[in-house]
Design goal:
With 315 residues, the protein is of the alpha+beta class. It contains eight helices and eight strands; from the N terminus they run H-E-E-E-E-E-E-E-H-H-H-H-E-H-H-H. 47% of the residues lie in helices and 20% in strands. It is rod-shaped, with a radius of gyration of 61 Å.
Length: 315
Amino acid sequence: MVEQLVVAIAAAASVGVVYAAAAARVVKQYERGIVLRLGRLRNDVRGPGFTMILPGIDRLRKVNMQIVTMPVPAQDGITRDNVTVRVDAVIYFKVVDPASAIVEVEDYRFAVLQMAQTSLRSIIGKSDLDDLLSNREKLNQGLELMIDSPAVGWGVQIDRVEIKDVSLPETMKRSMARQAEADRERRARVINADAELQASKKLAEAAGEMSAQPAALQLRLLQTVVAVAAEKNSTLVLPFPVELLRFLERAQQPGQMQQELQQPQPRQQPQPEPEPRPQQAPPVAPAAAPPPAPAGAPVVSGPTRVARSKPLARH
């Protein structure tokens, strides 16, 4: 009798151990337990720790309550300004209602992923290329609202959505590079022109100051020569225009006149006048002999005249 009692107690204990092993469940801190009894959802949500269910009757489903980071595959699309781009993103979400995440949707992870892909394509078609490149914060907010609207009914809360990368065709990259280069060149020219304007105003003021002192221009020229010749790696050719030399002569004349007035001038002795030279008579050409008279001609006697040549005029 005692043996039968001991066997019964041992059998009951073993049954109890088996039942406890089959009914005992442990829910982790970041999980929540949903109990389905005979296929019906129990209203109570099992918190973290040790819990018991009815073996064979109840079924416990654990739901992770942590924030899930899910990459969205890259999507090809055409922007509103007809540019082909390839955009990928990342989405952060978490389950806030474990019962809805189990009952309302078959696989909430897959559902959120598909909704993120379709929403990303929709955002690409509604946006311009400049918005995708520079105004991502606004696009992220719009994408988050598009995904969060259906996800609320699934017991899922979208925490954040970020556009990770935008891939452009090579031709578009080269066009954008040329555009940026042209814009930088335009700004450089504007800055250079502004600098030239300011420099011209300062040079005009300096010229006005130098015009009062003529020697300042010469000093400035010498300073320029010294600055250029300091490198000692080139040959300096400095042409002096005639106008500059005349300007320097006029600048030095007042000083020379004052020095000449201050110095005593030596007396000048009268120089003897040169004696006038006697004028020489012009040479007289010899008279030409008369031609011989022909034979049988009468001889005429009389005074002989001598012809004198006129003196040559001196030029």
